[in-house]
Amino acid sequence: xxxxxxxxxxxxxxxxxxxxxxxxxxxxxxxxxxxxxxxxxxxxxxxxxxxxxxxxxxxxxxxxxxxxxxxxxxxxxxxxxxxxxxxxxxxxxxxxxxxxxxxxxxxxxxxxxxxxxxxxxxxxxxxxxxxxxxxxxxxxxx
Length: 142
Ligand code: ADP
Ligand code: MG
Fold this sequence. Notes:
By secondary structure, the chain is an alpha+beta fold. It has one domain (2-45, 74-140): Nucleoside diphosphate kinase-like domain (Alpha-Beta Plaits, 2-Layer Sandwich), CATH 3.30.70.141. Helices cover 39% and strands 18% of the residues. The chain has helices spanning 15-19, 23-32, 47-53, 63-70, 85-93, 106-110, 125-135, and strands at residues 7-13, 36-43, 75-82, 119-121. Strands 2-3-1-4 form a 4-stranded antiparallel beta sheet. Adenosine-5'-diphosphate binds at residues 57, 62, 65-66, 96, 114-115, 117, 120, 123. Adenosine-5'-diphosphate (ADP) is lined by residues 57, 62, 65-66, 96, 114-115, 117, 120, 123.
Protein backbone atom coordinates (compact mmCIF):
# COMPACT_ATOMS: atom_id res chain seq x y z
CA UNK A 1 0.00 0.00 0.00
CA UNK A 2 1.18 3.54 -0.75
CA UNK A 3 2.21 5.71 2.19
CA UNK A 4 -0.75 6.44 4.41
CA UNK A 5 -1.25 10.06 5.44
CA UNK A 6 -4.40 9.66 7.52
CA UNK A 7 -6.78 6.96 8.56
CA UNK A 8 -9.39 5.23 6.46
CA UNK A 9 -13.14 5.10 6.53
CA UNK A 10 -15.74 3.33 4.44
CA UNK A 11 -18.28 5.11 2.26
CA UNK A 12 -21.04 4.23 -0.18
CA UNK A 13 -22.59 6.26 -2.99
CA UNK A 14 -26.05 4.74 -2.53
CA UNK A 15 -28.32 3.39 -5.29
CA UNK A 16 -30.48 6.55 -5.51
CA UNK A 17 -27.46 8.70 -6.34
CA UNK A 18 -25.98 6.21 -8.83
CA UNK A 19 -29.37 5.70 -10.51
CA UNK A 20 -29.91 9.47 -10.79
CA UNK A 21 -26.49 10.15 -12.35
CA UNK A 22 -25.06 11.93 -9.29
CA UNK A 23 -22.14 9.61 -8.58
CA UNK A 24 -19.63 11.67 -10.56
CA UNK A 25 -20.55 14.90 -8.78
CA UNK A 26 -20.37 13.19 -5.38
CA UNK A 27 -16.97 11.62 -6.06
CA UNK A 28 -15.67 15.00 -7.28
CA UNK A 29 -16.71 16.51 -3.92
CA UNK A 30 -14.97 13.65 -2.11
CA UNK A 31 -11.73 14.55 -3.89
CA UNK A 32 -12.26 18.32 -3.54
CA UNK A 33 -12.54 17.81 0.22
CA UNK A 34 -9.13 16.20 0.47
CA UNK A 35 -10.02 12.51 0.65
CA UNK A 36 -7.83 10.02 -1.17
CA UNK A 37 -9.52 7.03 -2.78
CA UNK A 38 -7.78 3.85 -1.61
CA UNK A 39 -10.31 1.41 -3.09
CA UNK A 40 -13.49 1.79 -5.11
CA UNK A 41 -15.91 -0.40 -7.07
CA UNK A 42 -19.41 -0.45 -8.55
CA UNK A 43 -21.48 -3.34 -7.19
CA UNK A 44 -25.12 -4.40 -7.18
CA UNK A 45 -25.91 -5.85 -3.75
CA UNK A 46 -28.34 -8.70 -3.31
CA UNK A 47 -30.96 -8.22 -0.62
CA UNK A 48 -29.14 -10.78 1.53
CA UNK A 49 -25.85 -8.87 1.18
CA UNK A 50 -27.61 -5.62 2.13
CA UNK A 51 -29.14 -7.38 5.17
CA UNK A 52 -25.68 -8.55 6.22
CA UNK A 53 -24.21 -5.08 5.90
CA UNK A 54 -27.03 -3.42 7.87
CA UNK A 55 -27.48 -6.25 10.41
CA UNK A 56 -27.22 -3.77 13.33
CA UNK A 57 -30.52 -2.26 12.12
CA UNK A 58 -32.42 -5.53 11.77
CA UNK A 59 -34.89 -4.72 14.55
CA UNK A 60 -35.66 -1.26 13.16
CA UNK A 61 -39.03 -0.72 11.44
CA UNK A 62 -37.30 0.54 8.29
CA UNK A 63 -35.02 -2.51 7.86
CA UNK A 64 -37.02 -4.03 4.99
CA UNK A 65 -37.33 -0.69 3.20
CA UNK A 66 -33.61 -0.02 3.70
CA UNK A 67 -32.40 -3.39 2.40
CA UNK A 68 -34.84 -3.28 -0.55
CA UNK A 69 -33.50 0.15 -1.45
CA UNK A 70 -29.85 -0.82 -1.05
CA UNK A 71 -30.34 -3.79 -3.39
CA UNK A 72 -32.52 -1.89 -5.90
CA UNK A 73 -29.69 -0.68 -8.16
CA UNK A 74 -25.88 -0.59 -8.22
CA UNK A 75 -23.94 1.40 -5.64
CA UNK A 76 -20.31 2.50 -5.36
CA UNK A 77 -18.30 1.35 -2.35
CA UNK A 78 -15.18 3.31 -1.38
CA UNK A 79 -12.25 3.31 1.02
CA UNK A 80 -11.56 6.97 1.87
CA UNK A 81 -8.38 8.20 3.46
CA UNK A 82 -7.96 11.50 5.28
CA UNK A 83 -6.89 12.74 8.69
CA UNK A 84 -9.74 11.89 11.10
CA UNK A 85 -11.43 10.19 8.17
CA UNK A 86 -14.47 8.85 10.04
CA UNK A 87 -15.54 12.24 11.38
CA UNK A 88 -14.46 14.15 8.27
CA UNK A 89 -16.60 11.91 6.05
CA UNK A 90 -19.63 12.03 8.38
CA UNK A 91 -19.31 15.83 8.43
CA UNK A 92 -19.21 16.02 4.63
CA UNK A 93 -22.21 13.65 4.37
CA UNK A 94 -24.46 15.65 6.70
CA UNK A 95 -27.40 14.51 8.83
CA UNK A 96 -29.25 11.27 8.02
CA UNK A 97 -32.41 13.27 7.24
CA UNK A 98 -31.61 15.70 4.40
CA UNK A 99 -34.18 18.14 5.81
CA UNK A 100 -31.86 18.47 8.83
CA UNK A 101 -28.55 18.44 6.91
CA UNK A 102 -26.37 21.55 6.90
CA UNK A 103 -25.79 23.58 3.75
CA UNK A 104 -22.79 22.32 1.80
CA UNK A 105 -23.22 18.69 2.86
CA UNK A 106 -23.73 15.87 0.37
CA UNK A 107 -27.08 14.87 1.82
CA UNK A 108 -28.35 18.45 1.66
CA UNK A 109 -27.43 18.62 -2.00
CA UNK A 110 -28.09 15.08 -3.23
CA UNK A 111 -30.44 13.20 -0.87
CA UNK A 112 -34.17 13.03 -1.49
CA UNK A 113 -35.46 11.54 1.78
CA UNK A 114 -34.31 10.07 5.12
CA UNK A 115 -34.24 6.63 3.47
CA UNK A 116 -32.83 7.52 0.05
CA UNK A 117 -30.06 9.73 1.32
CA UNK A 118 -27.32 9.40 -1.30
CA UNK A 119 -24.39 8.31 0.86
CA UNK A 120 -23.29 6.04 3.71
CA UNK A 121 -20.39 6.49 6.10
CA UNK A 122 -19.05 4.38 8.94
CA UNK A 123 -19.81 5.77 12.40
CA UNK A 124 -16.59 4.66 14.17
CA UNK A 125 -13.09 3.48 13.31
CA UNK A 126 -13.98 0.00 14.51
CA UNK A 127 -17.03 -0.15 12.25
CA UNK A 128 -15.00 1.29 9.36
CA UNK A 129 -12.64 -1.69 9.59
CA UNK A 130 -15.55 -4.15 9.76
CA UNK A 131 -17.34 -2.51 6.81
CA UNK A 132 -14.18 -2.25 4.67
CA UNK A 133 -13.56 -5.95 5.25
CA UNK A 134 -17.17 -6.75 4.26
CA UNK A 135 -16.61 -5.28 0.77
CA UNK A 136 -12.90 -5.33 -0.03
CA UNK A 137 -10.05 -7.81 -0.02
CA UNK A 138 -6.46 -6.71 0.70
CA UNK A 139 -5.64 -6.84 -3.01
CA UNK A 140 -8.22 -4.15 -3.81
CA UNK A 141 -6.50 -1.39 -1.80
CA UNK A 142 -3.96 0.85 -3.51
P1 ADP B 1 -26.67 7.07 9.00
O1 ADP B 1 -26.68 6.50 7.58
O2 ADP B 1 -26.69 8.57 8.98
O3 ADP B 1 -25.55 6.51 9.84
P2 ADP B 1 -28.49 5.31 10.47
O4 ADP B 1 -27.28 4.45 10.75
O5 ADP B 1 -29.33 5.74 11.62
O6 ADP B 1 -28.06 6.65 9.67
O7 ADP B 1 -29.45 4.58 9.45
C1 ADP B 1 -28.92 3.85 8.37
C2 ADP B 1 -29.72 4.16 7.13
O8 ADP B 1 -31.05 3.68 7.30
C3 ADP B 1 -29.89 5.64 6.80
O9 ADP B 1 -28.80 6.20 6.13
C4 ADP B 1 -31.12 5.61 5.92
O10 ADP B 1 -30.82 5.17 4.59
C5 ADP B 1 -31.96 4.53 6.61
N1 ADP B 1 -32.88 5.13 7.59
C6 ADP B 1 -32.57 5.66 8.80
N2 ADP B 1 -33.66 6.11 9.44
C7 ADP B 1 -34.71 5.87 8.61
C8 ADP B 1 -36.12 6.08 8.68
N3 ADP B 1 -36.66 6.67 9.75
N4 ADP B 1 -36.88 5.70 7.64
C9 ADP B 1 -36.33 5.09 6.56
N5 ADP B 1 -35.00 4.85 6.41
C10 ADP B 1 -34.21 5.23 7.42
MG1 MG C 1 -25.23 4.58 10.52
